[in-house]
Design goal:
138 residues, Arc Repressor Mutant, subunit A, globular, alpha+beta
């Protein structure tokens, strides 16, 4: 068993999921990358079916992604009220969203100037601020 597969099994068990062949393949697609991976559930299913010839149910993918998101392995980025994208980079950073291509692009935190929020909510404090910039063609 490869070291990466051992890590995937640990992630799955830590997320309270049984490490099946399909779920290990989901881990490989999500986490065996050099760069951040942004995806929607439908993107992930298409990759698993087309590039890895894997027959997998929507429920398995959905439940795995949501368990990983809950555990902090993925970050959910709501793009539209009906669609979310997920990000394997869970560090604090910002995003461009290309509406035409349906693509998220990372923006480093250092590329965004200071943000000064003047409104205060009684009994609440700001946990984090994430900038989400929608792009369109010129």
């Amino acid at each position: 068993m490869k070291n990466s597969e051992v890590n995937y099994i640990a992630k799955l068990r830590n997320s309270r999921l049984r490490p099946t062949k399909q779920r290990i393949k989901i881990c490989e697609v999500l986490f065996n990358r050099e760069k951040t991976f942004h995806f929607s559930i439908s993107d992930l299913i298409k990759i698993l079916q087309d590039q890895h010839n894997l027959k997998i149910s929507l429920a398995t993918v959905y439940n795995t992604v949501h368990a990983f998101q809950k555990k902090g392995y993925l970050k959910e980025i709501p793009v539209k009220s009906s669609e979310s994208y997920y990000d394997t980079n869970v560090s604090h950073h910002h995003h461009f969203f290309d509406e035409k291509d349906g693509r998220l692009i990372d923006i480093n935190e250092t590329d965004v100037g200071p943000i000064d929020i003047q409104t205060k909510i009684p009994g609440k404090k700001i946990k984090s601020i994430e900038v989400f910039v929608k792009l369109e063609d010129q």
